[in-house]
Design the sequence.
């Protein structure tokens, strides 16, 4: 009965004049999300504010031979077999892969300022499987020039993504796990963020549930969701053998049985407590220790006996922290920024749609009409 009521509420919001986008965002965030792909076909365009005329355009043919991105896109799409439903006939899957290539090349052709990155196809294939080629093309045009714009710039691998990884580091900072993060960095979250978790989750239902949430919220919400996953797995991380490679492997493998609705609520709560503007101030006051590129992580991983280095540095930092807390009343009576993040992040919401989720909706509505987030 709850699902029937939600379907009725969504239908009413879509039938309103003008469409009640605020209600649609609340439905997308609330427990269970948008429920069906049929509903997503109607609601996702509204969440992205895609003009109705754009949804009616038939996809144009795309030239492949002289396209600078074609070879890389082809390789990535050929390696994307696991993203298609198991048991799908080869002929049908191959047809969808051709459509996937066309969508990517079409978006890049219309937006020459964008630069393709490996992992982009994992987001596009989700839209293709839910919406079909025509709608997926229109929505990926909007998504790529707004939510994903920071990933599709030529500076993605250096400055912008390093900044976002620092957001994650600050969000998930904890007096216990900070010693591990200082060595392992946050590159383990790279595939989570650049694919909107599409590459690392095997159950397609979980992927589209997260997309409901992300599309209804601020473009940086995937960062907050990544942070609450790390916080949720704190004990598991601390129980792991103190070896850099093992810790990185553990963190990079997301359990498939996560309590997604609870984590979505906690991510919304964390966003409300620490919006991007405040995180930016927190980051500016910390010296970044995150390994923001694969090169950095590879270099750290090739050092001799990284487990010994990690243990030694961890003991040194623990001793320094204990000494500081013993000698400073301030450090005992006033929670550090790290401990504030942890305390607030684990509070969560007791219901799927509470005050924090509503605040996320209200914040989203501030930028939703134009989505002009990255001038």
Sequence:
């Amino acid at each position: 009965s709850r699902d029937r009521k939600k379907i009725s509420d969504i239908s009413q919001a879509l039938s309103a004049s003008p469409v009640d986008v605020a209600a649609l965002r609340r439905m997308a965030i609330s427990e269970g999300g948008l429920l069906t792909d049929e509903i997503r076909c109607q609601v996702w365009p509204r969440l992205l504010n895609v003009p109705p005329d754009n949804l009616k355009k038939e996809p144009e043919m795309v030239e492949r031979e002289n396209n600078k991105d074609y070879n890389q896109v082809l390789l990535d799409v050929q390696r994307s077999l696991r993203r298609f439903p198991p048991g799908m006939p080869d002929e049908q899957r191959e047809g969808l892969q051709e459509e996937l290539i066309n969508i990517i090349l079409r978006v890049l052709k219309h937006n020459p300022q964008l630069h393709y990155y490996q992992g982009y196809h994992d987001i596009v294939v989700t839209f293709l499987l839910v919406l079909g080629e025509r709608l997926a093309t229109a929505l990926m045009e909007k998504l790529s020039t707004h939510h994903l714009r920071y990933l599709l710039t030529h500076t993605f691998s250096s400055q912008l993504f390093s900044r976002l990884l620092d957001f994650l580091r600050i969000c998930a900072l904890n007096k216990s796990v900070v010693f591990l993060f200082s060595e392992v960095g946050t590159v383990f979250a790279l595939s989570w963020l650049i694919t909107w978790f599409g590459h690392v989750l095997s159950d397609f239902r979980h992927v589209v549930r997260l997309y409901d949430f992300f599309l209804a919220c601020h473009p940086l919400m995937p960062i907050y969701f990544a942070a609450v996953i790390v916080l949720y797995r704190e004990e598991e991380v601390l129980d792991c053998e103190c070896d850099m490679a093992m810790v990185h492997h553990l963190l990079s493998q997301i359990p498939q049985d996560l309590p997604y609705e609870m984590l979505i609520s906690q991510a919304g709560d964390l966003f409300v407590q620490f919006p991007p503007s405040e995180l930016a101030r927190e980051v500016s006051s910390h010296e970044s220790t995150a390994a923001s590129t694969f090169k950095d992580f590879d270099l750290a991983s090739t050092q001799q006996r990284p487990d010994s280095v990690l243990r030694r540095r961890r003991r040194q930092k623990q001793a320094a922290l204990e000494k500081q807390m013993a000698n400073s009343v301030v450090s005992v009576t006033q929670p550090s920024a790290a401990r504030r993040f942890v305390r607030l992040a684990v509070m969560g919401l007791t219901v799927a749609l509470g005050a924090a989720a509503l605040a996320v909706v209200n914040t989203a509505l501030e930028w939703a009409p134009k989505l002009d987030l990255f001038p």
User: Anything to note?
Assistant: DSSP finds 22 helices and no strands in the chain.
